[in-house]
Protein: KCNKH protein
Amino acid sequence: LQGIIQAYKSGITLQGNTTSLGRWDYSGSFFFSISAITTIGYGNLSPSTAVGRIFCIVFALFGIPLNLVLLNEIGQLMLLGVQHCAHRLEEVFHCQKNASFLMKTCALVTGLLLFLLLPPLLFSDKEGWSYEEGFYYSFITLSTIGFGDYVIGMNPDRTYPSWYKNVISLWILFGMAWLALVIKFCINILE
Structure:
Protein backbone atom coordinates (compact mmCIF):
# COMPACT_ATOMS: atom_id res chain seq x y z
CA LEU A 1 0.00 0.00 0.00
CA GLN A 2 2.84 2.40 0.84
CA GLY A 3 4.30 1.83 -2.66
CA ILE A 4 0.98 2.76 -4.28
CA ILE A 5 0.72 5.95 -2.21
CA GLN A 6 4.30 6.91 -3.12
CA ALA A 7 3.62 6.23 -6.81
CA TYR A 8 0.50 8.42 -6.67
CA LYS A 9 2.44 11.24 -5.02
CA SER A 10 5.04 10.94 -7.79
CA GLY A 11 2.36 11.59 -10.41
CA ILE A 12 1.59 8.04 -11.51
CA THR A 13 -2.15 7.47 -11.73
CA LEU A 14 -4.02 4.39 -12.81
CA GLN A 15 -6.48 5.07 -15.60
CA GLY A 16 -8.02 1.91 -16.99
CA ASN A 17 -5.18 -0.36 -18.04
CA THR A 18 -2.62 2.41 -18.54
CA THR A 19 -0.61 4.69 -16.31
CA SER A 20 0.18 8.37 -16.69
CA LEU A 21 3.74 9.27 -15.86
CA GLY A 22 3.27 13.03 -16.07
CA ARG A 23 4.28 14.93 -13.00
CA TRP A 24 2.77 18.17 -11.79
CA ASP A 25 6.14 19.83 -11.26
CA TYR A 26 6.90 23.21 -12.85
CA SER A 27 8.05 21.82 -16.22
CA GLY A 28 5.22 19.29 -16.42
CA SER A 29 2.63 21.91 -15.46
CA PHE A 30 4.03 24.40 -17.99
CA PHE A 31 3.96 21.72 -20.70
CA PHE A 32 0.38 20.79 -19.73
CA SER A 33 -0.62 24.47 -19.92
CA ILE A 34 0.88 24.82 -23.39
CA SER A 35 -0.78 21.63 -24.63
CA ALA A 36 -4.13 22.87 -23.26
CA ILE A 37 -4.09 26.43 -24.68
CA THR A 38 -2.71 25.29 -28.03
CA THR A 39 -5.51 22.68 -28.16
CA ILE A 40 -2.98 19.89 -28.81
CA GLY A 41 -4.29 17.91 -25.84
CA TYR A 42 -2.10 14.79 -25.94
CA GLY A 43 -4.31 13.06 -23.39
CA ASN A 44 -1.48 11.68 -21.27
CA LEU A 45 -1.76 14.26 -18.49
CA SER A 46 -5.05 15.59 -17.23
CA PRO A 47 -6.59 16.96 -14.04
CA SER A 48 -8.06 14.22 -11.88
CA THR A 49 -10.15 16.26 -9.43
CA ALA A 50 -13.36 18.22 -9.98
CA VAL A 51 -11.66 21.46 -8.92
CA GLY A 52 -8.76 20.77 -11.28
CA ARG A 53 -11.11 20.10 -14.18
CA ILE A 54 -13.11 23.28 -13.52
CA PHE A 55 -9.88 25.28 -13.31
CA CYS A 56 -8.74 23.70 -16.59
CA ILE A 57 -11.98 24.73 -18.30
CA VAL A 58 -11.70 28.34 -17.07
CA PHE A 59 -7.98 28.40 -17.92
CA ALA A 60 -8.70 27.14 -21.45
CA LEU A 61 -11.60 29.58 -21.97
CA PHE A 62 -9.22 32.49 -21.41
CA GLY A 63 -5.98 30.80 -22.50
CA ILE A 64 -7.03 29.60 -25.96
CA PRO A 65 -8.08 33.05 -27.26
CA LEU A 66 -5.01 34.66 -25.68
CA ASN A 67 -2.83 31.99 -27.27
CA LEU A 68 -4.40 32.68 -30.68
CA VAL A 69 -3.58 36.37 -30.26
CA LEU A 70 -0.02 35.46 -29.21
CA LEU A 71 0.45 33.09 -32.16
CA ASN A 72 -0.86 35.76 -34.52
CA GLU A 73 1.58 38.30 -33.09
CA ILE A 74 4.50 35.88 -33.32
CA GLY A 75 3.52 35.05 -36.90
CA GLN A 76 3.26 38.74 -37.78
CA LEU A 77 6.71 39.39 -36.28
CA MET A 78 8.14 36.51 -38.32
CA LEU A 79 6.47 37.85 -41.44
CA LEU A 80 7.69 41.37 -40.69
CA GLY A 81 11.23 40.03 -40.31
CA VAL A 82 11.03 38.28 -43.68
CA GLN A 83 9.60 41.40 -45.33
CA HIS A 84 12.33 43.57 -43.77
CA CYS A 85 15.05 41.24 -45.05
CA ALA A 86 13.44 41.15 -48.51
CA HIS A 87 13.33 44.96 -48.58
CA ARG A 88 17.03 45.14 -47.66
CA LEU A 89 17.88 42.67 -50.43
CA GLU A 90 15.82 44.73 -52.89
CA GLU A 91 17.85 47.81 -51.98
CA VAL A 92 21.16 45.98 -52.35
CA PHE A 93 20.42 44.03 -55.53
CA HIS A 94 17.77 46.33 -57.10
CA CYS A 95 15.58 43.35 -57.93
CA GLN A 96 12.25 43.33 -56.12
CA LYS A 97 10.74 40.09 -57.41
CA ASN A 98 13.81 37.91 -56.87
CA ALA A 99 14.55 39.34 -53.42
CA SER A 100 11.03 38.64 -52.18
CA PHE A 101 11.10 35.09 -53.55
CA LEU A 102 14.55 34.50 -52.06
CA MET A 103 13.47 35.67 -48.60
CA LYS A 104 10.29 33.59 -48.64
CA THR A 105 12.37 30.58 -49.63
CA CYS A 106 14.92 31.30 -46.88
CA ALA A 107 12.13 31.70 -44.29
CA LEU A 108 10.56 28.42 -45.41
CA VAL A 109 13.87 26.52 -45.29
CA THR A 110 14.87 28.07 -41.95
CA GLY A 111 11.49 27.17 -40.48
CA LEU A 112 11.71 23.64 -41.87
CA LEU A 113 15.10 23.24 -40.20
CA LEU A 114 14.16 24.81 -36.85
CA PHE A 115 10.71 23.31 -36.46
CA LEU A 116 10.54 20.06 -38.42
CA LEU A 117 13.97 18.74 -39.47
CA LEU A 118 16.29 19.45 -36.51
CA PRO A 119 13.98 18.75 -33.53
CA PRO A 120 13.73 15.03 -34.38
CA LEU A 121 17.48 14.82 -33.71
CA LEU A 122 16.86 16.12 -30.17
CA PHE A 123 13.95 13.71 -29.74
CA SER A 124 16.12 10.82 -30.94
CA ASP A 125 18.71 11.71 -28.32
CA LYS A 126 16.40 12.47 -25.37
CA GLU A 127 13.52 10.06 -26.07
CA GLY A 128 15.28 7.24 -27.93
CA TRP A 129 12.92 7.62 -30.88
CA SER A 130 13.95 7.08 -34.47
CA TYR A 131 14.32 10.17 -36.66
CA GLU A 132 11.04 9.29 -38.41
CA GLU A 133 9.20 9.01 -35.09
CA GLY A 134 10.62 12.39 -34.04
CA PHE A 135 9.57 13.97 -37.34
CA TYR A 136 6.10 12.46 -36.98
CA TYR A 137 5.86 13.83 -33.42
CA SER A 138 7.00 17.27 -34.63
CA PHE A 139 4.35 17.52 -37.33
CA ILE A 140 1.53 15.98 -35.27
CA THR A 141 2.33 18.41 -32.44
CA LEU A 142 2.76 21.61 -34.47
CA SER A 143 -0.36 20.91 -36.52
CA THR A 144 -2.23 20.48 -33.17
CA ILE A 145 -3.45 17.02 -34.13
CA GLY A 146 -1.81 15.69 -30.94
CA PHE A 147 -2.76 12.01 -31.03
CA GLY A 148 -0.79 11.31 -27.86
CA ASP A 149 0.92 8.19 -29.19
CA TYR A 150 4.24 10.05 -28.81
CA VAL A 151 4.68 12.54 -25.97
CA ILE A 152 7.99 13.91 -24.72
CA GLY A 153 9.34 13.30 -21.24
CA MET A 154 7.24 10.25 -20.45
CA ASN A 155 9.73 7.37 -20.53
CA PRO A 156 10.36 6.26 -16.93
CA ASP A 157 13.65 4.67 -17.99
CA ARG A 158 15.12 8.00 -19.10
CA THR A 159 16.35 11.02 -17.20
CA TYR A 160 15.37 14.32 -18.76
CA PRO A 161 17.16 17.65 -18.25
CA SER A 162 15.20 20.28 -16.33
CA TRP A 163 15.11 22.63 -19.36
CA TYR A 164 13.73 20.03 -21.77
CA LYS A 165 9.94 20.46 -21.44
CA ASN A 166 10.24 24.26 -21.19
CA VAL A 167 12.28 24.49 -24.40
CA ILE A 168 9.87 22.14 -26.18
CA SER A 169 6.94 24.29 -24.99
CA LEU A 170 8.55 27.37 -26.58
CA TRP A 171 9.33 25.34 -29.71
CA ILE A 172 5.63 24.45 -29.89
CA LEU A 173 4.53 28.11 -29.70
CA PHE A 174 6.98 29.39 -32.30
CA GLY A 175 6.58 26.31 -34.48
CA MET A 176 2.80 26.66 -34.51
CA ALA A 177 3.14 30.31 -35.56
CA TRP A 178 5.53 29.33 -38.37
CA LEU A 179 3.33 26.44 -39.54
CA ALA A 180 0.30 28.76 -39.53
CA LEU A 181 2.20 31.10 -41.87
CA VAL A 182 3.08 28.18 -44.16
CA ILE A 183 -0.54 27.01 -44.19
CA LYS A 184 -1.71 30.57 -44.90
CA PHE A 185 0.79 30.79 -47.77
CA CYS A 186 -0.50 27.46 -49.16
CA ILE A 187 -4.09 28.69 -48.91
CA ASN A 188 -3.14 31.85 -50.84
CA ILE A 189 -1.54 29.74 -53.57
CA LEU A 190 -4.60 27.47 -53.80
CA GLU A 191 -6.98 30.44 -54.00
Remarks:
- Residues 1-190 form a domain with the Helix Hairpins fold (CATH 1.10.287.70).
